[in-house]
Amino acid sequence: MQLATKENKALALVTVLIFVLISTIIAGALVALVSSEARLIESQIRRIKAIYAAEAGIQQAIQGIRSNPSHNPDGDSYSIGGMNVSIVYDSSGAGPLDTNILDTQVNYNIVW
Predict the structure, then answer these.
(1) Under DSSP, is residue 18 helix (H, G, I), strand (E, B) or coil?
(2) Residues 19-41: pLDDT tens digits?
(3) N or C: at which end does the chain have fewer Cβ atoms within 10 angstroms?
(4) CA–CA separation, 75 vs 98, rounded Å?
(5) Could you give the dihedral angle defined by the CA atoms of residues 88, 93, 99 and 100, in that order, rounded to the nearest 10 degrees?
(6) How far is residue 37's CA from residue 25's CA, in Å, rounded to a whole number?
(7) What's the distance, CA 11 to chain centroid?
(8) Strand ranges inside 1-112, DSSP E
(9) Burial group, residue 29, by CB count within 10 angstroms (0-12, 13-18, 19+)
(10) What distance in Å separates the CA atoms of residue 106 and residue 53, rounded to the nearest whole number?
(11) Is residue 86 in a domain?
(12) What share of residues in the chain are helix, strand, coil (percent, to 5)?
């Protein structure tokens, strides 16, 4: 059996250090990727919630019009699911209030 020489020990140390360095780089890249994906998913969830909040705001505006036909919903604001929903109605057209041209603006914050 041959005893390990200083050169063999040095080569083993360098090999282990290179392996650790490469492993650290790969682990860092994976952490960055997972973090990026989590942010993307959070953003998508907030967009979907905003769509549903906008739909709920339109439904509330329509319900308000049905209960009071003379009510103009332009500028009405609702807080739905932690989001501020503002109703926009372009009343430039003549005639009765047309619920087909109601629009919404949803404001929400993304915290990174």
Answers:
(1) helix
(2) 999 999 999 999 999 999 999 99
(3) N
(4) 15
(5) -100
(6) 18
(7) 49
(8) 77-80, 83-89, 102-107
(9) exposed
(10) 7
(11) yes
(12) 60, 15, 25
Choice between 88 and 48, residue whose per-residue pLDDT is larger? 48
Ramachandran angles phi, psi of 85, nearest 5°: -115, 120
What number of other Cβ atoms are within 10 A of residue 106's Cβ?
22
Q: How far is residue 30 CA from its own chain's centroid?
A: 21
- Kindly state whether residue 48 falls inside one of the protein's structural domains: yes
In the chain, how many domains are there?
1
pTM: 0.60
Please state, in angstroms and rounded to a whole number, the distance separating the CA atoms of residues 56 and 62. 10
CA separation, residue 50 to residues 9, 18, 57, 80, 85 (Å): 61, 48, 10, 9, 9
> In whole angstroms, what is the distance from residue 31 CA to residue 16 CA?
22
Judge whether residue 80 has pLDDT over 50: yes
The domain of 94 spans 6-107
